[in-house]
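SEQUENCE WITH STRUCTURE:
===
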Amino acid sequence: MKRVADESLAPRGAINFSWAWRHMPTLTRIIEDQRPKAPLKGKKVGVCLHVTKETAVFVKGLQQLGAEVYLAGANPLSTQDDIAAYLLSEGVEVWAWRGQSTEQYKACIRNVLRAGPSLQVDDGADAHVMAHSEGYAARIEGGTEETTTGVLRLRALERQRGLAYPIIAVNNASTKFLFDNRYGTGQSTLDGILRATSLLLAGKVVVVAGYGWVGRGVAARARGLGARVVVTEVNPIRALEALLQGYEVMSMRQAAPLGDLFITCTGQINVIDEPHLLNMKDGAVLANAGHFDVEVNVGALKRMARASREVRPNVTEYELPDGRRLYLLAEGRVVNLVCAEGHPPEVMMMSFSNQLLSLLYLANEAPRLEKRLVPVPQEVDEEVARATLGAYGIALDALTEEQVKYAESWAL
């Protein structure tokens, strides 16, 4: 079976890897501190992540700590082919290339699971779900999950049939979702949209579907570039927060005829559906920041269109029967990774530091953990925050003994 797109791209991948390594000091410091102990020696680690330069730093770290690493991509269109070639040249068992079919994508994940990993890292839960549904779970001692969508899927799996091994919800660590989801996705989503379209955002109406941590970040960055931002929500508390942050808040039905650019940030299916598409203005652009290609009803868009064509890389024009044209980015897939390079390394260093420390925790504690979704240990979250502040040269105050006593006293 094909392993990577082109092995000759490895030298270019090495250069991009070095750039990421230089800009991920929290993660690299943990790797360097742990390397002499080889805490993952003898462990097989399965990895299903977006194959980017930042992921390469994490994967090489696993290798340097003694692990035997098996890697597949977490999306058919997100792999950076030079990075996949570089990791293969470095002895990582890689099955990943950009532009996979659905069956090739699944086959690559299956190859990772067939290797019999004792620890499994995932982004979106495809590997965890396949392990449970296809009989690969027995040898897995524990796992981690990187993203909101994956955690939601695993909660459903946990409720319906139970988990076969403990899985740490890395996404729920404060040093992950507060930074990766908000600042990382906020910046990289707009980076992908601007690279794909080369359009000016200032003055345009940008409709952000969902005001979770991703939506908050996307809305803030769009407003910072001069856009008029509209937020749609199903959660009244989040909608109220968006309103009090100064955004216009309305339903997608109301927003459909107003928006110049629509960005979905929900993890839900058909957030932009046929009735919305029918009411959009000529030239509206559709982008998805979520993990799976389900938030825009692409099937409905294809059925409605009388013609379609690629007008720029990763930009498909759909001409509707009345002559209006809608532009879909990245085939409705995760726009920051298909149209750009994903999150900045400075953000991913926190996410992958959580991943690495969670794996080290599992390597020691998995047999004693319940087979369920497990939170990131608080000490891990705080260690990542302290290490990141240290990497920026920032020192913190500490409570004095007098202040500690005051905080613990009920008397004034």
Observations:
- The chain has a mean pLDDT of 96.
- Residues 59 and 69 are 7 Å apart (CA to CA).
